[in-house]
Structures are given as C-alpha cells and as structure tokens.
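Co-fold these.
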Amino acid sequence: MLKIIVDAMGGDNAPAEIVKGALQALRERKDFKLVFTGMEKAVAAELKKYKYDASRVEVVDCAETITNDDVPTSAVRTKKDSSLVVGLRLLKEDEEAGGFVSAGSTGAVLTGGVMLVGRIKGVHRPALCPALPNVRGTQTLLCDCGANAECKPAYLSQFALMASVYGKTAFEMEKPHVGLLSNGTEEHKGDPLHQEAYALLKQTAGIEFAGNVEGRDIMYGDVDVVVSDGFSGNVALKSIEGCGKMVATVLRSSFASSLGGKLAYLRARKYIGKLTTALDYSRYGGSVFLGLKKVVVKSHGSSKAKSICPSVIQAVDACRGNLIGEISARLETEIAAEQE
Amino acid sequence: MLKIIVDAMGGDNAPAEIVKGALQALRERKDFKLVFTGMEKAVAAELKKYKYDASRVEVVDCAETITNDDVPTSAVRTKKDSSLVVGLRLLKEDEEAGGFVSAGSTGAVLTGGVMLVGRIKGVHRPALCPALPNVRGTQTLLCDCGANAECKPAYLSQFALMASVYGKTAFEMEKPHVGLLSNGTEEHKGDPLHQEAYALLKQTAGIEFAGNVEGRDIMYGDVDVVVSDGFSGNVALKSIEGCGKMVATVLRSSFASSLGGKLAYLRARKYIGKLTTALDYSRYGGSVFLGLKKVVVKSHGSSKAKSICPSVIQAVDACRGNLIGEISARLETEIAAEQE
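Predicted complex below.
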C-alpha cells in the first residue's frame, strides 16, 4: 500500500496540528498508509487523542529536529536522526513510499530533497510549485516560488514543462497555458534572463506558451501556469500573502469599530467567509517540489491541521496521478530531442 | 506661481477624467496653476463642463498623442508635438513649472523624463516610487517598482536614499526604516545582486537599514521604505493589484449570490467600503519618478478623476516640500564623501 511519510516535528504547530491534519487525510482517503517521523513519545501523545485505523499508521522514532535557525545544508548533513532526514531517507529507500510532507524549514526540505531523494534524470533544478486561487475560481500554478533565487533561461523552460505536467496530472488542466512572469506583457520586457527565457519558451515543445504575464495575472487566472525565477516568484507569493492579511485585518477592525458594524457582520459573515476561503491558498495544500524522484510537499511553516490535511491528500493524488512518471517521460523525450 | 503640467491625453480615460481630476485638485489647493498639454479642442470641451478659476488654467495645444502601442524611445524622439513631450519640455524650460503628471505610457514617461527633464547630478538611475497602504494604516514606499528591470547594487542603495528623502519630505516619516525586498529575511538570502546590495545598504550613511524583507512585509508595514530592483518591485506591485481585484470580485459575487446576501450587503456596505478604500492605493496618487530634476508623477493608466486629483496634489506637495532640492543636497553629500 502507498505510504505517505509525514514530518511530525516540522513547522510552528508541530506535532499537534501535524498529527491532527494527517489523520484527517487518513479518514478522507482509504488508499494509503501514514508514516510519521518524529519523537515517538510526543507523536504517540497526539495520536492518543484521536480514533484511527492503527494498521494504517506507523511512527518512526527520531531524536532530533531541524529548525529554522539551522543552516539547511549542514543541518541535513549532521542531524541524521532528525524527522526530516529520516523521513526523506525512508522516502528514497522504501519502495512503497510515494510522498513526503513537511511544514519544516523550507531550506532544509529543499536541500534534503535534492541530497537525499535526488533529481529526476535531466532536471536542472527542482522547483517549488504552489497552487494559488484565481478570479476564475480555479487555480494558477506558480513555479518556481522560491527554490532557486538564481536561474538560467533553461531552468525556466523546464519549470514550464514540469508545472504543465503537474497541471495535467493533478488539476485537470487539459492544455495548461503558460505565462512568463515579467514586468510587463510585451515580448521585450524584463532583464536578459527573462528575455532569453521568453525566446526559449516560445520554442519549447509540449507547452502552450502564452507570452509574458504580470504579477496581477497570477490571480486573474488567464493562464494556468505562471513560470518565474525563484526570487520574483517568491516576491509574488509573499506579496499576495501580505495582501490577504491586510484584507483580514482591515475587515476585522472595520466591522468591530461600532455596534452597527458588529450587527452587520452577523449577517454578512457567511458571504465574507467566501472571501476568506478564496484567499486561503493553504486549503489546496502546500507547494510541490517538482523535479525530485519522489513526491515532496512543503507545507507552510505556520500550517495547522486544515492545511496539513490537503497537503497529505495532495501527495496521495500526485502519486496516484503518476506525477513523477509523467515528468520523467516528458524529460526523456526532451533529452532524446536534444541528442538528435 | 507654481505650475503643475498635466498630460491631458495620457491614459485610458483621457481627456475627460484627467481634466475632471485636475480641476478637483485646483479647487482643493489654491497655491498653483494648471497647465494642460493636449488637443486644445478636446480639452476645452471638457473644461467647459466645470466651473473653475480660468486665471489659474492654461491649455497648450499639441497635435499628437503617445499611446501604449508606441515604442517609448522612438515615440519620445519623433512625436515632438505630443502632449507628453510638450509637457516634459515645458517642465524643463519653464522656471515656474515644478511638476508634471501623466497617466500615459509608463515607458514613454520614463524615457521622456530622463531624456527631456534630466537626472539630478549623481543619480545613477531614476526610480518609480508609489506609496502603498499597509496594515498599520500608514503607507509603505516601494522603490523601484518598474523603471529599472536591471539593477546594480549601487542603484538600490541610491533608491533607498531617494525614497528615504521622499518619505521625510512628503510622508512625515521622521526616520524611515528601509527594508530590502528579497526572498527571505536572512542576510544571506537572494541572488548576488541582492546580497551585494544588502552589504552596501548596511554601510550607506543617512538611511535606517532594517535588513531584508519579504513581499508580505510591504503591506505589513514594519518598514517605511521597501527597496527593490525594478523587476521584482513591479512583480510585487502588480501581485498586490491582482489580489485587490480578486477580493473585489469574490465579495461582489458572494453577496450577489442570493437575496439574503444582497440584504446583508446593504448593512455591510459601509464597513466593506473601508476595505475597498484601504486597498485602493490610487487614492494616494501615482508613482513619483525619483531622481529627475523636477517632479514627475506617473498615474495609473486606468486612472479616473479620483486618482488624478491626488496625483496633482502629490506633485504640488513634492514641490512645496522641496523634494528635488533635498534629494540633490543628499546626493551632493554622498558625492563629497566618496571623493574624500
């Protein structure tokens, strides 16, 4: 049976919310097993709080935890008994293991993913790819949103390929339209990296390149995939996050400012809730780390159970949709074409 | 008397909304004159609709208009009788002229500003600097948000200087705290450009450097000035714009979805309006193009009267606050220090 490994110690709300969320996913999907890596006592104490099918849950004890204060590269090398390193090793070595979910240090997940799980043959650089809500009511994939601060044009073209495959296998996008994130829609926009990437994307077979897009187009949703270097993709993602917080804060203080406001809120709550839901991209899970030999999902550091649950399901779906096989096949075609 | 020149033909809603908004500003402030550049007949037809002090309004007839379809550099060179070129020439040549406002092509305003008005001595690259609303209820200055897709570390350090001066002279920021937009808050984050810019900003005298910030910090407002290369600054600005549109669209459709929603909206409208106002950064005017010898304000291409009015007032305030003089003085100190 498919195993999804969950880093029980990663993130601000570990292990309580991690265990809770993963067990929710276990109830929703019957076709996988959970393997928690983490301090056994702490995890067991959380598990005790819930009813679940014990035959589908396993705990692998680890003595260490990697935190945000650790330097990723050295932490992955030295903290060999950490929940993250043990989890990623298991992912690599256990044939039944298909996916790994962590809300821990992004840097450590990225470094560990590349070092311990390894890249798919032909992948220049794996990339983080979250799904963001858009005005159309669907999702826009943003790739890369932070794994690679420095990029070459060829990386961006591969991000487009991998994210397109991801869109097809996991989001029912038939022919994902790909936009290149730039500072304007005209072809000549951007710095040399983006101008060269534009030229390369135009020639990339197997993707539907729609030209340059701007930051606003991520949420407008006119394209399905937005390709970006990891630096500006991260800026876009975090800017949207900041805007979401601004919305929540202003609405709260506005309605709380008077009795009339509080009364109006009682009636409006339901409708405003749709906005909160629409802006909350954690309900789609985390960011998939595309380009590794197995499925790795990075959930937000502040994840609670309601984001861990979709992250685990996201990992299950990616395995069921054969994400890794599809990306490998796509890249093999690519490599074969280049050698011709 | 101080003259503010307004490009009556620039933007999607020219000349009607431009004339309307500029006249609103004329009513609000008594200490300046308006000079419209544009097709005299069209401008006069709009002016006719309003009552205003004719002794404070002048129209300079121009036969041409630069559009977004024009290539900025060649348009500025060849369309010599366009509202933009005539306006910028007037700004340079007329001693009383202190500021210029346009909602026209950003590229043409930038190119025209540099070519026709010129840079302040010592300025590497002028930069666009809008004021964005933040959770604290104040504004965050974002510089550069699109004038320079390619930057060097020294440019970013100067953006910090210029935006800090702007914050002091126009926003009552006593000691503006400056953050560097990056893909994480740690010092080592970013590509070489941003790592070098970090090192340089740490040594830049006369600014309060607070380290790296992320996209979300623009709206969190923990710093007063966010310095960025023009590429990622533009991505941030546009991402926030897209998020704002998402909010408006979701709220509209949510409340419109049922009779109960429509009724709830009647009571909630006032409170939701505060959100719309909070997110609408055009109420602060446009982006000031910092580093030119006179004040140039770029208003959003879709500007209506309610954004043109604050843009004109912004130009008046910048002149009154001696923005140009202060930036020049600051850079002279800088140049003197470098020569020692």
